[in-house]
Amino acid sequence: MKASAKGMNAIDIIHLHEWRHVFKLDPDKDIGDSALEQICMSGTDAIMVGGSSGITFENTVDLMSRIRRFELPVVQEVSDLDAVVPGFDAYFIPMVLNTTSTEWLVGQHKRAIEQYGYMMPWELIVPEGYIILNPEATAAKVSEANAQLTAKEAAAYAHIADKLMRLPIIYAEYSGTFGDMETVKQIKAAASDAHVLYGGGIATIEQAQAAAAVADTIVVGNIVYDNLQAGLDTVAAVKGSST
Ligand code: 1GP
């Protein structure tokens, strides 16, 4: 999987539009070699590496190099510029649409580009329009998001991402809790072109199937640290089904 292939952008290289299921692994959490192998060999479509706190260059490079022993695409979701590690297939850059501070929409991004713009691998960078929907999530607190949204409001943000900003990804983020599928359904309905990721609280086959029925891709996170087998079971639950 060479990200530098000429004439292809990161979205094509990682086959984003074929993703139905991904695992998100947190560099700040320990995972043993056997568990990591089972995750990477599970049939999932890709691994996202990222988290909301405790992310460093060291723990990110360590996790990336361990995942790199396997064939599947691996992308970094960047939350801290100091922890950006060369060698991922793509870099997902969150832009929090429902933040109350421009800092999390474009502020940090502007400072990063001022400082490092000359060396940015633009062809590997994929912006994500984040809609954070769980007020208790660390991501909601850190990004000062107004996460108490009606389905209609969430869909309006999805329209902004899809139609005004033309972002390639919309991320319906309920991190830590299983979300309202009607809201996700309306986000998906608003997205003509954007690829819709759903993440948050998926711990069972039924939840995986319910989320996969309304989103293009489901993101499975914390359950792999709490109950590995339950996490692995979510792969078979959604692969082969369609939205
Ligand atoms: C977190 O959306 C992901 O960014 C996954 O959430 O950890 O709750 O599965 P969970």
Automatic annotation (TrEMBL):
| GO BP, sorted A to Z | glycerophospholipid biosynthetic process
Q: Which domain of life is it from?
A: Bacteria
Question: EC top class, in one word?
Answer: transferase
> Which GO terms fall under molecular function for this chain's record?
heptaprenylglyceryl phosphate synthase activity; magnesium ion binding
Keyword Lipid metabolism appears in the UniProt entry:
yes
Under the subunit heading, UniProt states:
Homodimer.
Function of the molecule: Prenyltransferase that catalyzes in vivo the transfer of the heptaprenyl moiety of heptaprenyl pyrophosphate (HepPP; 35 carbon atoms) to the C3 hydroxyl of sn-glycerol-1-phosphate (G1P), producing heptaprenylglyceryl phosphate (HepGP). This reaction is an ether-bond-formation step in the biosynthesis of archaea-type G1P-based membrane lipids found in Bacillales.
Family, per entry: Belongs to the GGGP/HepGP synthase family.
Name of the protein in question: Heptaprenylglyceryl phosphate synthase
The source organism is: Paenibacillus aquistagni
